[in-house]
Amino acid sequence: MSILKFKSILPKLSSGILRNTLLPTKIVPLKILCKYSSGSNLQTQENEHYDRPKLLNVHLPNTSEPLKLHPIWLRDHCRCPECYNDVTCQRNNDILKLSDQIAISTYSQSDDLLHICWSDGHKSSYSIPWLVSNTYDGKYKALQEETDRLTTWDGTTVNLLGLEPISHQRLMSDDKILREIYRRVIQYGFVKIEQVPPTKLDTSAVIERICRMSHTVFGKFWETGTNFDHKDTGYLNGYLEAHTDNTYFTEAQGLLVFHCTHFDGTGCESFLVDGFHVAKQLKQLDPSAYGYLSKVNMESEYIEPGEHFSSWGPIFRHHPVSHKLEQIRFNMLDRSPLSSIPQEEVGTHYRYLKTMATLVKKKENEYRFRLSPGTVMIIDNWRLLHGRESYQGERVLRGCYYSRSDFMSKARHYGIIS
Ligand SMILES: [Zn+2]
């Protein structure tokens, strides 16, 4: 969205150049909203001009319904250089200097622009499409009404998605492929990059090419199979049931990157389960279980010498605005002692948890494959569950996490999410 530059509109108004110029609104004096009492107690009083103001009607093309805007909102969203720094993309204005008595003196609308002269002499110009896409109806409500566009899959349908792996050579030489990588991760939950030389250096270069590595308690670029640096089951060679990582972090890492750079042994088949697909199945099979696991907070923890991570949350976490499923937190091994419900409700709790665990372990839901040297796999840790069969022999698995915030920032930059 382009940033509006401040421009004076008075000469245009006085010379009558503007088309569709509307009659100026009456100057509306606004009374003081807040008062202090007993020194530090700030109280708010309802003020009819502030709480039930005369909204400005902005006429939109192709609809008879005007865009209705509060004068205070408009003044707070002025994008002139005095009010907004378009280099840092941050506001310059102090909310306490936003006068309660501010009012629109005159306004006019021309093409895609709305011009306002304020009662204190300040002048603002707004792009009308920008106003539309940043108000309640255009953004918040649109987000609530947005349909789900993700493609969920099971162990059979995953093979029908037609996802050709991306080659290492293409990744390293073609900037356009980066957007495709982000699109696939958002749409399907994973992406594979093949023909990557199985070295530490090449793996690290692939990882850094896509997004910045996250630094966690496990380091930035981790390695399992050559050491037991962290007291986690993932560092051993036993069976690992399907799970998501970091349920004990305040914000679980968003993405996992794996590269098995060396394997000389038997076993070790990997599997992924689309947690969003399992969520749909559970919702259909037992809606009360889905509702319960979306509501009841469970604590998870990770403890090693000098560290004790803990976080609370439900298994299904929904977006606060769209209410769509946003994250699955499912790791039965990292559960803390169950303290979030009274003992009388424990039976129901385990019944629902087992229903969910049964769906997660259903063979039909598993996408099975072998992580072999040369294939880098990026997995959405907020959506997919990952697991592994036990193995005998030598195995070196390298990888890292991308933080959710970092990965989604890039996805937004590429226009994949809003
Ligand atoms: Zn301004």
Strand order of the largest sheet: 10-11-21-14-23-12
The number of domains:
2
Kindly provide the radius of gyration, computed on alpha-carbon positions and rounded to a whole number of angstroms. 27 Å
Strand content: 25-35%
The CATH class of the largest domain is identified as Alpha Beta
Organism: Daphnia pulex (Water flea)
Pathway: Amine and polyamine biosynthesis; carnitine biosynthesis
Cofactor: Fe(2+); L-ascorbate
Domain Gamma-butyrobetaine hydroxylase-like N-terminal: 67-131
Description of the molecule:
GO terms for molecular function: iron ion binding; trimethyllysine dioxygenase activity. InterPro entries: AlphaKG_dependent_hydroxylases, GBBH-like_N, GBBH-like_N_sf, TauD-like_sf, TauD/TfdA-like, Trimethyllysine_dOase. This is Trimethyllysine dioxygenase, mitochondrial. Its EC number is 1.14.11.8. By secondary structure, the protein is an alpha+beta fold. It folds into 2 domains: 10-145, NE0471 N-terminal domain-like (2-Layer Sandwich), CATH 3.30.2020.30; 157-413, Clavaminate synthase-like (Double-stranded beta-helix, 4-Layer Sandwich). The chain contains 12 helices and 23 strands. It has helices spanning 10-15, 48-51, 71-76, 128-133, 136-145, 168-173, 176-188, 200-210, 275-285, 287-295, 346-360, 404-413, and strands at residues 34-37, 41-44, 56-58, 67-69, 84-85, 90-91, 104-110, 113-118, 123-127, 166-167, 190-194, 222-224, 240-243, 255-267, 270-274, 298-304, 307-313, 316-318, 325-328, 366-369, 376-380, 384-388, 391-402. Helix 9 (275-285) crosses helix 10, helix 9 packs across helix 11 and helix 10 (287-295) crosses helix 11. It is globular, with a radius of gyration of 27 Å. The model is unreliable at 1-41 (pLDDT under 50). The protein binds zinc ion (ZN). Zinc ion binds next to loops.
